[in-house]
Batch of 2 targets.
Target 1
Amino acid sequence: MHKSIIAQERISATGLTNKELQRYSRHLIMPEVTAEGQKGLKAARVLCIGAGGLGSPAALYLAAAGVGTLGLVDFDRVDITNLQRQILHGTKDIGRSKLESARDSLRDINPEIEIELHECRFSSETAEQIAGDYDVVVDGSDNFATRYLSNDVSVFARKPNVYGSVFRFEGQTTVFAPHLGGPCYRCLFPEPPPPESVPNCAQAGVLGVLPGIIGMLQAIETIKLIVGIGESLIGRLLHFDALKMQFRELKLRRDPQCPVCGDNPTIFALIDYDQFCGVRETEDVPAISVHELKQKMNDGETFELIDVREPFEYEIARIDGAKLIPLGEIAERTDELQREQPIIVHCHSGGRSAQVVRLLRQRGFRNVYNLEGGIDAWSDQIDSGVPKY
Ligand SMILES: [Zn+2]
């Protein structure tokens, strides 16, 4: 029985060169794979969303395994804080586009494969066109809006979505594929969590090896779908706890009420995922840039600079003259703030401080501004002596 997600005609139309037969010999000698499975891999087109923590190991192993066409979507640049886990990129790549850096690493691993770069945001405008050309979507995204988007695109286009996510010391993975009998991401999580309740890696941290484990599991599941072997994670969620060194498995069921894959779906096209996930633009918050702040300092202007990060972050790096009032304490400590003078609020990258600016404005502070990009931007653009973390 043909179990591969790649059509038999495409596999039959694919050949392996002598060089490829040598390169993949450890696959070919396994009766579960053989040249037939390897030709399936060569015929396959896999899209990795994100060339970061999960995308790095996934793409490296998929390239090494001989997936014929590997697509990558990302729009970021390599930052030194990425290197603790994003092993597609090296120290020499800092400041480069992640996709170019990824392409160079992947070409070195396997020059036989095609690499397609999509240097843009994976958005409602671009997603269908990008994903349309691929057989499998490997979701290595780090935010809910992209996750719902990648889910919906995959459901509509009837493509398996190999899901992975990581948080601190824990991660999970599964394969969403309603057309193959499993649930989709929305069956599990019909509603996104409130945006401010979920810290990302930059806020909560992640053990560097963890996305390595989860991303490799995603690569294995992808290869199994293509070769058509084993028991897929469709309908099962695998949870990994690195501190306990424990894997747990949860059964997943398709929700008949699911708005995209249920019996009476109500969503038939891509929506505005930022709005759906309540991602509030910081645009509605009055802000100043790090250059404007520097100018105010140089001009000797009077203002108060409030740092709303946690004390341990303040220990790592601080802007001279900033007063520390952690986010959790600000509501109780507004009487310490001067209403007469401008207040500039900063955090690590501008998210928490935007919340504080909104809160203070609600409490009648008129002259309060968010520092765009936070101490991260300060370190990048004004004072490289302030450590980045
Ligand atoms: Zn569903």
Target 2
Amino acid sequence: MAFPTPPACLAQRDLRSAVLTADTDAALLRIYAWMYLARTADNRILDLFRQGLIKGTVTGGQGNEGLIVPLALLADKSIDVISFTHRGFGGHLIWSDHLCDHLNQYCANAQSPTKAREGNIHHGDPKNRSLPMISHLGAMLSNVIGATDSQRRLGRKAVGFTFFGDGGSSTGDIHESLNLASLLSLPVIFIIENNQYAYSTPVSEQFTAGTELWKRAAGYGIEGFSLDATDPEATANTLAAAIEKVRSTSRPLLIEAHTLRLRGHAAYDTCDYLLPGESERFFSRDPLPKLRARLEAAGHTARLTSLETELNDFIEACVQTALAAPRPDPAGMEADLFAPDSPPLPWKPEPATPRHVTMAQAIGLAHRKILTERPESLVLGQDIGTYGGAFKVTDGLLKDFGRARVFNTPLAESACTGYAIGLALNGHRPIEEFQFADFSTEAATQITQNAATYHFRSGAAVPLVLRLPTGGGLTFGSFHSQELDSFFLSIPGLKALYPSTPQDAFNALLAAYEDNNPVLLFEHKGLYRRGKFDVSWDPHYRDIWQPAQRLAGDFATIVTYGEMVHLATEAAAYLSSEYERTFDLFDLRALAPLRLDAIRASVARTHRLIVIHEGRLTHGFGAELVARLGEEMFFDLEAPPLRIASLDLPVPFAPELESAYRPTKEKIVDRIATWMG
Ligand SMILES: Cc1ncc(C[n+]2csc(CCOP(=O)(O)OP(=O)(O)O)c2C)c(N)n1
Ligand SMILES: [Mg+2]
């Protein structure tokens, strides 16, 4: 259905500082039109929610328009980056698309920009650098930092805008992001929307900084100030100057905007926690009537009345259009989980002659190849620069490729991963090293809630490689030894590779790199230096997404991955010499998506299944393998499947305890021998 034509007062979505100073009334009328649109549409959305026509809830921006409208009008929407919060509806309306697109989102109909997979304000427009917010407050800041950096690297003089409330200001992500932006000297304006409440909790119960949150800027070595966002004219003038300054200096800025939340937290909020007279005081500062009075006094009453009539009619026509759209279709949901594959990158067939290297060196070699051949690549992580990484995988890369492309990050896994997501959204392809896989739990929100869900909810691709030095057996204790594969892979939207040889590790990094999705690359620390092997360019590198058969036999099918491939191979050799039983042995290599065809064919022949992995037994990866193969092949099996895994404990420290905890060659032999009967 065609969308209603917007009235002329919405023709302009831009406001440059020159217009603001040369013809103030024209500028204010433009601001007023968008503020009126945002307020009236927000109120109408609340009505529709109360009528049951909009689901979930709605968190209106009523009272925040004095900030968000001037800001969105002043931003350069052809290059800048932004991520609005749940109070930024007016900003969404200005940044891109038609009011109907935004209402379709709220109505969660078939035309919704998120295909109705997300509701209310959880949309954006990634292709126009408006990054959709996830609910986790604070998480979007680092995405804006990354996408802004990407724009600058592409030679565009962009500014990033990112917002958080007084409530969000207490999250760790806010601190990590402010520090990161300052450290990288990126032109991002951080705006605190201080409306004095986080849901029902007043600022006095959140922090002791009162109304001076902006003073935190000094702690990050950046400038900061506060402004009264209930005065749109002053706000527009202040923001115009601030944006120009940040654009030219490339230094971040922290602005605390004193703003309002006139309708409480959300549609269901009864606001009975407000102090007597507080609501009246809020409404007395409402920026919309204040601006109207200013324009009336300047003689624009007739213009205001006609503009409001036009906008009311337009909003009503758009509401009817959105309500008439068909309901969404569940078809295609699963196909959209991952961004589609693209053809292989045009890799040079190098190194053509084999290099005799360890697995750590093989991964370093793959980095070197990527950095040499792919200008959009970047490598980041803790101590990966001069030091070459905790396991020396990135040794020498900084020297050869420079600090702009190979750089150390502070201890801020969440913001650094969010930053990498932002880079990836804008066309760069970052490779992030976690010092130990264990520390990726610090970035769990960015990995599992943000990156993993991105394509499904927005259609945007996040090509990102997260390298995870994994696993135990090295007496590193419980915080440096874990297998987190089943922890992460219970979340849809992540791909995962887990190579067991230097050549596979080399291939895996190339395959992960060119994938259009977030890929977890598990690298077992015990394999980093377990001998040197020949590694060279392999035109079949994409086969890493399929299991590899390492042994052929007929008694049972062993499925394993990582370091366990080596222990299982030794155990199988022992069993075949002592018991004359031979095994098919598959190295899974790709944990997600699972490709089990070759394994099914093997089980159909051997009629027995053994799964061996280093992660814990309960909820471990083997549970999925056994369940899936058992479900599909129940009548092919002649014995119950055997699972060999670690104990359901934290990884213990002492070598004696650790080898009691995890599978060893001896334990694998014993378990299989007992099972064979
Ligand atoms: C990390 C996190 N914890 C809890 C919530 C649930 N929640 C949603 S909005 C909100 C209050 C946010 O307050 P503030 O940041 O001041 O923004 P405001 O709603 O006032 O604009 C809370 C607690 C969340 N979204 N994210
Ligand atoms: Mg608040």
